[in-house]
Amino acid sequence: MVQTLKKSWTTFKTIFTGMGVTMRHLLQPSVTLRYPEERDELPSGARSKLFVHIDDCIGCKLCERACPVNCIAIETVQATKDVDLGKTSTGNPKRFWITTFNIDMSKCMYCDMCVPPCPTECISMVPEYEYSEYDRNNLLFQFSELSADKVTEVKEKAEKEQEEKQRKKKEAARKKKAQKADQTSKAKQKNSEG
Amino acid sequence: MALLIFATLPLLLIVGYALFAIWLERKVSAHIQDRLGPMRVGGWHGWAQTIADMLKLIQKEDIIPTNASRFLFKSAPFVLFAASYAAFSVIPFSSAYIGSSINIGVFYLLAVTSLLTLSVIMGAWASNNKWSLLGGMRTAAQMVSYEVPTIMSVLSVLVVAGSLNLMTISEMQTGNDILGFLPNWLIFQNPFLIVAFIIFFISIVAESHRVPFDLPESESELVAGFQTEYSGMRWGIFMLAEYADMLLLSLLGAVLFFGGWASPFGSYLSGPVWGFIWFMLKGLLFVFVMMWMRWTLPRYRVDQLMEICWTILIPVSFINFVLIALWEMTF
């Protein structure tokens, strides 16, 4: 009898304890974030999407080399002497046309290793995470702003300049050879005379 | 015609209340778990969610299992709802409205609500499903057991009130005379009625099979018990009847212990309309407490359920009944 009464008393007490707990939670504001309407602020340094300020890129390809999964593809063409591409916002002179700068976000593993090597701080993670796509190809982000025509023009120009250089070099080399040959023949003559 | 309108009023009330209560249940459960619950349908805190759900249920296919007993299977939800709806006829909603002011109101109510057990067993057996049948058997055992303490606690109220007519019981509880300020509600008239109320409340929770006594349904072990094979609007009617039953027993508790439509402030705010509002507020308070309990307490085991009923509630209610009778004789 005493046992039963004790048990009943504990039951009652614990029921009220539990109901107190639930009442407290009922009155608390809920923790739900109504996602499309509200968003959590991302922590600083969150890695969610890569972005390139193409105006600041000097085409050094350090990020491409740093990438462990090869998701960055850069192609550059050296600028000819008659054009001045200007300087980046950090003051580095730009010497290359960036003909392609593609980042494949479907390959990216968000390691952030491409960001520190950049000398002009033009590649960075931006807090943007709602870019899912139905087609994998749409995840290939192209940052180069040159048109196809411009690219071919620039390439041809660069090739021409290169050829010119090559020719000049060859010529210079031939001249040198000729000089050398001249000298050696003269020396031989001297030897035979002596 | 007027009679028909008079008779349909509680139906509208029950349907409106059920839509509200299901929404409230979802909101209460959500906020207790620090969630938000339905928020989208209808604008303000998803108030139209249950209306949308009901429209969906109406469109659903009405599936009847091949080996089910078709007639019983089809009629079980309607018997269940008819039983709880019929019981509303003796509830005095306000000083101006009562379906039928018969002088055996309480007896009629208890008798009609016993039909609930029958319809649950009907649905359970007709489903031809072992989980349903187990659920139905549990319901039968539970409801038969818990009717004893319910009736004993109701009987103790009747000893104090001296009438079986719920309207008369409500009328005698108007006014504020006890200790100068307390309303004349029966629970304040006799100290042992507090014990009777506790027993009554535990028993009605068990009778409307809510947690912690929701063994007939127990979705986690019996896959919803007798409701397993039901779908679409038939299931919806089961749901409706369950909530109607909850309200019915809560309102009965309000009449028997908390003055029915009597205002807590004596003659202040006590017209027929105010009476209805007070009455519904009292009923909904109990409904809310039942919801609150549901999201707090775990479920009892079958043997614990029976032990509580037969070894604690029934003896205590009998002793309490004798004590109340003695108190009434001496004072």
What does this protein look like?
The complex is a heterodimer of chains A (194) and B (331). Chain A has three helices and five strands; from the N terminus they run αβαββββα. By secondary structure, chain A is of the alpha+beta class. Chain A has a domain at 57-150: Alpha-Beta Plaits. A three-stranded antiparallel sheet of chain A has the order 2-3-5. Chain A has a two-stranded antiparallel sheet with strand order 1-4. The termini of chain A are far apart. The mean pLDDT of chain B is 86. Chain B has one domain (68-330). Chain B starts with a helix and ends with a helix. Chain B has helices spanning 2-32, 49-59, 70-87, 105-113, 115-126, 130-161, 166-171, 186-189, 192-207, 232-257, 272-294, 302-330, and strands at 92-94, 97-98. Chain B is an all-alpha fold and 331 residues long. The A-B interface holds A 4, 8, 15, 18-19, 21-23, 25-26, 28, 30-32, 34 and B 28, 30-36, 39, 292-293, 295-297, 311-312.
Per-chain topology:
The complex is a heterodimer of chains A (194) and B (331).
Chain A lengths: L1 H26 L21 E4 L9 H5 L5 E7 L17 E9 L18 E4 L13 E3 L5 H46 L1
Antiparallel strand pairs in A: 1-4, 2-3, 3-5
Chain B lengths: L1 H31 L16 H11 L10 H18 L4 E3 L2 E2 L6 H9 L1 H12 L3 H32 L4 H6 L14 H4 L2 H16 L24 H26 L14 H23 L7 H29 L1
Antiparallel strand pairs in B: 1-2
Helix pairs in contact in B: 1-10, 1-11, 2-10, 3-4, 3-5, 3-10, 5-6, 6-9, 6-12, 9-10, 9-12, 10-11
Cofactor (chain A): [4Fe-4S] cluster
Subcellular location (chain A): Cell membrane
Protein name (chain A): NADH-quinone oxidoreductase subunit I
Summarize the structure in short.
The complex is a heterodimer of chains A (194) and B (331). Chain A is of the alpha+beta class. In chain A, 40% of the residues lie in helices and 14% in strands.
| Number of distinct helices of chain A | 3
Radius of gyration computed on alpha carbons of chain B: 20 Å
What is the CATH T-level topology of the domain at 57-150 in chain A? Alpha-Beta Plaits
Give a quick account of the main beta sheet of chain A: strands, pairing sense, barrel closure.
3 strands, antiparallel
The helix fraction of chain A, in percent, is 25-40%
Distance between the termini of chain A: 139 Å
Strand order of the largest sheet of chain B: 1-2
Pfam families (chain B): NADHdh
EC number (chain B): 7.1.1.-
Subunit structure (chain B): NDH-1 is composed of 14 different subunits. Subunits NuoA, H, J, K, L, M, N constitute the membrane sector of the complex.
Enzyme class (chain B): translocase
